Amino acid sequence: MINKYLTIYNEIVEQIEAGILEPNSLLPSENDLKDRYNTSRETIRKALNLLSQKGYIQKIRGKGSVVIDIDKFDFPVSGLVSFKELAQKMGNKPKTVVNELSLITPDQEIKQQLNLAKKDLVWKVVRTRVINGKKIILDKDYFNKKLVPELTIEICENSIYEYLEDELGLKISFAKKEITVEQPTEEDKNLLDLEGFQTIVIIKNYVYLDDATLFQYTESRHRPDKFKFVDFARRTH
């Protein structure tokens, strides 16, 4: 049986994501929520604390719990999730277009990024992410073929991580990320709907397995107006 505070948390999340509870609005007081859900104040506080930890509300002393604006698509900086996993939280049916899938001899830059030996081959995958009919992310992935022996268009359209974990049994563990803002390249202009934007946000990901083996290097190139990159840090005392 699901805990009462999780039921309350899930219901409030649904109201926030549906826009019923608008950004910058106040949640009802703890007393009002206690009466509404016919539960204890401790249960309400556990639900509110979880909402705060997940970035849905900000608790302000003397004011209450304020709803945070989640209108833009959230890409967690500290998390390591696939686009498919993020897309499942979106109600607007994102789409992935595979622009390129090829097995290549990497140039010197990619060799350095992936710490490759001289004769190692690499899967190059270029995908455009389409949301609300707009091409707003360009992902350029490079996978070490020794660790990822096979890829197909179908896998790349669905979820590479799902394939690696469920089919190949790889354990993806952690990533190092670098975030920069740069001018778009001609490739960006051709494969994204930049609509006059003069900059793009680039996240470089170096992704490791649980034995600390580097197996993937990615450049994720984002149109700047559609995304906020989020992380929630809390000071401990």
Over all CA atoms, what is the radius of gyration? 21 Å
Largest sheet: 6 strands, antiparallel
Q: Any idea what the CATH architecture of the largest domain is? A: 3-Layer(aba) Sandwich
Helix content: 25-40%
- Numbering strands along the chain, what is their spatial order in the largest sheet? 4-5-6-9-8-7
> What structural category arises from helix and sheet content?
alpha+beta
Distance linking N and C termini? 34 Å
How many structural domains can be distinguished in the coordinates?
2
Which geometry do the CA atoms define?
elongated
What's the helix-strand series? Answer: HHHEEEHEHEEHHEHEEE
Poorly predicted ranges (pLDDT <50, ≥5 residues)?
none
Give the strand content.
25-35%
| CATH H-tier superfamily of the largest domain | Chorismate lyase-like
Please report the total strand number as a whole number: 10
Name of the top-level CATH class of the largest domain: Alpha Beta
What's the gist of this structure?
The protein has 237 residues and is α+β, with helices and mostly antiparallel strands. It contains eight helices and ten strands.
How would you describe this protein?
The structure is a single chain. The protein has 237 residues and is α+β, with helices and mostly antiparallel strands. The chain has 2 domains: 4-67, Arc Repressor Mutant, subunit A, CATH 1.10.10; 73-230, Chorismate lyase-like (Chorismate lyase, 3-Layer(aba) Sandwich), CATH 3.40.1410. Helices cover 28% and strands 32% of the residues. The chain is built from 8 helices and 10 strands. It has helices at 4-17, 30-37, 41-53, 83-87, 108-114, 153-158, 160-166, 186-191, and strands at residues 57-60, 64-67, 73-76, 95-104, 122-131, 134-144, 172-182, 200-209, 214-222, 227-230. The chain has a 6-stranded antiparallel sheet with strand order 4-5-6-9-8-7. The protein is elongated. The mean pLDDT is 85.
